[in-house]
Design goal:
The protein is α/β, with parallel strands linked by helices. The chain is built from 14 helices and ten strands. 45% of the residues lie in helices and 12% in strands. A hairpin with a 7-residue loop joins strand 7 and strand 8. It is globular, with a radius of gyration of 21 Å.
């Protein structure tokens, strides 16, 4: 069992961040396989053929993607912590990737091969400047498959941060980390269980940890660069949830109207009106009108946090939406600005 050990100073400085690099890495793994996430099926169907053509034209890219999709150890040059907090850009991350020398890239790839559940060889690792070629692959995948999707995905990731920051403000880190991934959990007073597999404990320094959500719904990984904090990449809460066509959903839509019913279901996770508009592809005016009706019916309430108003369901709203989660198990506290990197 691998533990991440944090003292009180490390805990106080731990924070959330976004990583377009990690999102691109997870998306490449998704595109390299048959789609199993219903909410990504349309995107997967539009993009997989082009992605495969890109790989078939580049043996280096094809070998790298095949390896990262079948190993328990992601290569070191792909797992650098984001350095820009919630405002991290892909280009800032790729600028760090290209600085990694070829010998470090090869060492990480060899470890990935050793931990893979498929047979691999590194015959595709020819030439030189592998970190630069890796950056070119990530840049192409971002441009062709993710740039247009990023605003919607970013909204979803920010909502996960809002939700967990509320838990942190109300209950502390153990509750904020609850169900972050299948294997991670708080252990004792000062440690996070990262993996069930044998391995040495990791000591988190005084700079604390970064917690980085991605939309990929399975798997988490640990990032550590030559300097800087550890980063734990985890599946964003609710990224794979879609409204089903069952009778309760249809009945709620008939009762409230489809627009307001959709918003009420979406507010299982607190959100601002801007986040709802981006997530649902509707105008702010439409969202605001629906929220006004839901507030008048006492199904949702809004709480001001700085310049934002964060909406959440009331207990009556939970009951009407058919939410079976106990309110004692879900914080309604808003996120504080100090919890998010600038």
């Amino acid at each position: 069992m691998v533990l991440l050990r944090l003292d009180s100073m490390a805990l106080s400085r731990s924070r959330f961040a976004l990583s377009p690099l990690a999102e691109t890495l997870g998306s490449m793994i998704v595109l390299s396989r048959p789609c199993t996430d219903p909410w990504l099926s349309a995107w997967h169907g539009r993009h997989q053929a082009v992605f495969r053509a890109r790989l078939n034209a580049d043996p280096f890219a094809k070998g790298l993607v095949r390896l990262i999709g079948s190993t328990k150890y992601l290569p070191d040059h792909l797992t650098l912590p984001p350095i820009g907090g919630m405002g991290t850009t892909l280009e800032s991350e790729l600028a760090e990737v290209v600085l990694i020398p070829d010998e470090t890239v090869r060492h990480g790839l060899e470890k990935a091969v050793a931990h893979s559940w498929k047979d691999h060889n590194l015959a595709w690792l020819s030439g030189r400047d592998w970190s630069t070629r890796t950056a070119e692959l990530f840049r192409d995948v971002w441009r062709d498959h993710l740039a247009d999707e990023w605003p919607r995905r970013r909204t979803l990731l920010e909502r996960d941060v809002t939700y967990r920051a509320g838990l942190l403000a109300a209950y502390g880190w153990p509750r904020a980390l609850q169900q972050m991934s299948r294997r991670s959990a708080w252990v004792g007073a000062d440690a996070i269980r990262f993996s069930d597999r044998p391995g040495p404990d990791r000591i988190v320094g005084a700079d604390g940890m970064l917690f980085v959500p991605v939309t990929k719904q399975r798997g988490s990984w640990l990032c550590k660069g030559p300097s800087g904090p550890y980063a734990l990449v985890y599946p964003a809460r609710g990224a794979g949830e879609t409204a089903g066509p069952g009778r309760p959903a249809r009945a709620l839509a008939r009762l409230l109207g489809p627009g307001r019913a959709t918003i009420l279901r979406e507010l299982e996770r607190p959100a601002t009106s801007s986040e709802l508009a981006a997530q649902l592809g509707q105008s702010l005016g439409t969202i605001g009108g629906h929220l006004a009706v839901l507030r008048e019916a006492e199904l949702v309430v809004g709480t001001r946090v700085g310049r934002r108003v964060v909406y959440r369901r009331t207990e009556l709203g939970d009951q009407l939406a058919g939410d079976q989660m106990s309110r004692s198990d879900r914080s309604r506290a808003p996120a504080g600005p100090c919890l998010v990197c600038p």
